[in-house]
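Field reference: "sequence" (input) and "structure" (output). Example, Polysaccharide deacetylase family protein:
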Amino acid sequence: MTSSGNAVPVFLYHSVSDDPPPWIAPFTVSPRVFAEQLDRIADAGLTVVPLRRLVAALRGGPVLPPRSAVLTFDDGFADFYWTVTPLLTDRDLPATLYVTTGAVHPPGGTARGSLLPPAPMLNWRQIATLDACGIEIGGHTRTHPQLDTLPGRKLCDEVFGCKRDLEELLSHPVESFAHPHGYSNASVRRKVQKAGWSSATSVGYAFSSPADNALRISRLMVRADTPAEQFQAWTEGWGAPVAPYPERLRTRGWRAYRRVSAGLGRPVGGPPTD
């Protein structure tokens, strides 16, 4: 697939570790590979901009610099503090970290109330420190559910409650949201907007663009098995579709199946989609 000159790669990472728990290993890159990918981004002449600059452009504000890119990280793994941040700081690169608040480790204890399996996660002190150091902290719900399968009350608790959790900790507005698994629909996006989030990222396996949906920003997920050639293609602006594009029929079918399964008390997972 080829892309246009308006393609904006919004890279999605999860854990950056040499020894991740098995459940997140397929979505983990090693510190060595991550550093190499940051170097590839620089060598390709991309300008890494804060997510808020892309959001401003999507909402009719100043245009992005030519060949812009954005770095995002989901869930809130502890390696972001110890491994990712030093690599970003050395290169003076901005990033957005989306936190699942129910997975945050409280002082002297372990996190409870998250659907994510056990893993080393950030604690509240570390999140506050990252915020003070200039990392944008965003929300990723409280428990990491499939939002498009939830009834209204539970959906509100996840979307509104996550925002409240983070703003109480950081003492300032938190504006960026990420849909768990990349799943959303029009109803979910209306709730996200009503809660006061100014943007929301999805997955899509596609480039974003100045015409993308600010409440469903497409991202390119970087996985353990992402070939170097594929990542290089993304930095050069090709190898993926460009958002926006119509929702795929298979996405609608998969959503319907997940909703029925959840209603029967047998929720299903699956790969993040658009």
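The helical segments are 31-43, 51-58, 79-91, 124-132, 152-170, 186-195, 228-235, 249-263.
The first strand starts at residue 10 and ends at 13.
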